[in-house]
Amino acid sequence: MAHDCLFCKIAAGEIPSSKVYEDEHVLAFRDINPVAPVHVLVIPRQHLASVAEIGPEHADLLARLFAAVQRVAAETGVAETGYRVVTNTGRDAGQQVFHLHLHVLGGRSLGPVA
Ligand code: 5GP
Ligand code: ZN
Q: Are 45 and 11 within 8 A, CB to CB?
């Protein structure tokens, strides 16, 4: 496990989470402080700090992450109504947890992205 990483601990089951989907490579769980009726975090089990660490060797992993996003959207009921996928990278984006994660947001009208 990488250093003292919160999401590595969640992936390892050392910290409980409300899981929506999981497989060998990916885990999806509900955000502890949701900002929308549906707010799920999709993470790779492999530790990558952020988008900044993604390389060509992660192509399969990225496809798995987005396949999981589709599963989460279907299982939470937002596949039809729409949803937003966000990943914060670095200080100015307000990234708090430095383990790559996709926020899946939906269940209400979200307005303009910025
Ligand atoms: P970031 O700002 O890094 O993009 O997002 C981190 C997200 O992780 C925040 O939305 C925050 O609410 C969520 N979060 C932080 N700690 C925990 C936790 O222990 N469990 C869960 N489920 N979510 C967490
Ligand atoms: Zn980690």
A: yes
